[in-house]
Amino acid sequence: MTLEFIGHVGARSGSDVIPPRGPVVDKAYIRELAQSAERSNFDRLLIGSFSTTPDNNQIAAFVLHETTRLGVMLAHRTGFVAPTMAARQLATLDHFADGRLGVHIISGGTDEDQQRDGDFLEHDERYARTDEYLDVVRRVWTSAGPFDHEGRFYRAKGAFSVVKPLQPQGIPVYFGGSSDAAIEVAGKHADVYALWGEPLDQTAETIARVRASAARHGREGRVRFVLAFRPVVEDTEEAAWARTRELLEIVRQPNRPVHGGGRNSSLPMNVGSQRLRQAAARGKVLDKRLWTELAGATGASGNSTALVGTADQVADALLDYHALGVTSFLIRCFDPLRDTPLFGREVIPRVRAALAARALEPALSA
Q1: Helix or strand run (H / E) with residue 348
Q2: Contacts of residue 58, Cβ cutoff 8 Å, sequence gap at least 6
Q3: Mean pLDDT of 260-271
Q4: CB within 8 Å of 235: residues ≥ 6 apart
C-alpha cells in the first residue's frame, strides 16, 4: 500500500498554542514552512478553509509555486460556488500544480462558520448537496461534450469545460465526516477518507463503515484512509510527556490564542468531535500513547489528539494504524516551524523503513 504524509500550513505563523504573529498573509512564513516540509519528507500540505481567514486557493497557488515536489490537500467548501465553476478552477490549478493537487471536500465544519458566509442548510442537507455537487464536478472533469443537469440543488444547461485535470485519474478527492450522512457520501465519492486521531478500535470501526458504504456503491477496495494526529516527539519519553503538560496549561488559559476558524460559544456537535470527546472520557492515554486529554480540555473542536513519545515510539504507534488500513497520516504540529522538520527527519523515515522491511520479510523467509 502507498504511504503518504501530509503536513499543514496556514496563512501566518501560529497555532492553538502559539499566538498568531506576522502579517495576516505572511508570504515569508508560508514559503519557509512549505519548503521545510518538502525537504523533510512530507508529500503534501493541507491548506484549510474557514470563513474568517485568507483565501486558501491563493495560498495553495503560492505553495505550489514555491515548491517543486510537494503536493497540496486543498480544503474546498461545497455550496459557495457553482460546481461547474469549481470543476474548472480545480482543473486549472492542477495544471499549474503539475498534477500535485488534491482536494479535501468540506460539507460544513460548524453551523456558525457556515452561516458567516450565508449557508443556513441543516447538517444532512449539506451532505446531500455535496453528493450532487461532486456528481457535477466529476462529470465536468470527464465529459467529452456538453451536458445538462437538473437536480435538487443545482441546474445547468450545456455544461462543459475544455480544461480537464492534468492527473490522468483525476484530482484525488479527500473527504471527511463521521455521521451516517457523511459516510454514505464518502462511500460514493471519496478517493481518500479522512479521520481524526481516534483509538485503534474506533478507527477500525469507522474504516469498516466506510468500506461497507463504498461496497454499496460498487466501489469496493477503492477508498484509502488518512488519519490526523498532533505529534509530540522528543528525545525521551519523559520529555515528551512533560511537553503535554505544558500544552495542557496553555489551552486551559481563559484567554488562550485562537488560530483558524475562531472560537465557538458551545461544544461542537459534529459527530467527529463527539467521538473524540467519547474517547477522551475513556482515559487520558489510550492504546500505546494516544493522548486524548487535550481533546477533552478543548471540547474536541478540531484535530486534537496526539501521539506522544520518542521518534521510535511514535513511529511504532503509526504502524499500528497502518495495519488497520491507514495509508496516509495528516500531521498538524503544535509548533509548525519547529515540529515539521523534526517529525519529517525523525519519524517519517522510521515508518517508511519499517514498512519496507516488512515487505521484504516474505521474500527473505521463502
Answers
A1: helix 348-365
A2: none
A3: 62
A4: 310
Neighbours of 361 (CB within 10 A): 9
pLDDT digits (tens, 9 = 90+) for 306-327: 999 999 999 999 999 999 999 9
Mean pLDDT rounded to a whole number for the chain = 94
Contact between residue 103 and residue 172 where contact means Cβ atoms under 8 Å apart = yes
What's residue 303's pLDDT? 86
Which residue in this structure is represented by grid cell 486558501?
Answer: 56
Closest CA to 169 of 205, 196, 141, 150: 141
Residue 319 CB: number of other CB atoms within 10 A?
Answer: 15
Q: What angle do CA 238, 241, 244 make, to 5 degrees?
A: 155
CA nearest to 293, candidates 227, 241, 336? 241
What percent helix, strand, coil does the chain show, rounded to 5?
Answer: 45, 15, 35
DSSP 100: -
Read off the C-alpha cell for 330. Answer: 495528516
CA distances from 200 to 79, 165, 203 (A): 33, 36, 5
Cell digits of residue 127: 451532505
18: DSSP letter:
S
- Three-state DSSP at 34 gives helix
Using DSSP's 3-state secondary structure scheme, residue 120 falls into coil
**For the ranges 72-76, 91-95, 109-113, 177-181, which has the lowest average pLDDT?**
109-113
What is the phi/psi pair of residue 82, to 5°?
Answer: -65, 140
DSSP SS3 for 148: strand
Which residues are paired to 8 by β-bridges? 46
Domains along the chain? 4-365 (3.20.20.30)
Give the pLDDT confidence of 163-172 residue by residue, as tens digits: 999 999 999 9
The residue assigned the cell 468540506 is 106
Sign (positive or negative) of CA dihedral 275, 276, 282, 287: positive
Indicate the SS3 state at residue 61. helix
Round to whole Å and give the CA distance between 257 and 250: 9
Residue matched to cell numbers 451536458: 147
67-76, 281-290, 355-364, range with the lowest pLDDT: 355-364
What is d(CA 180, CA 191) in angstroms, rounded to the nearest whole number? 18
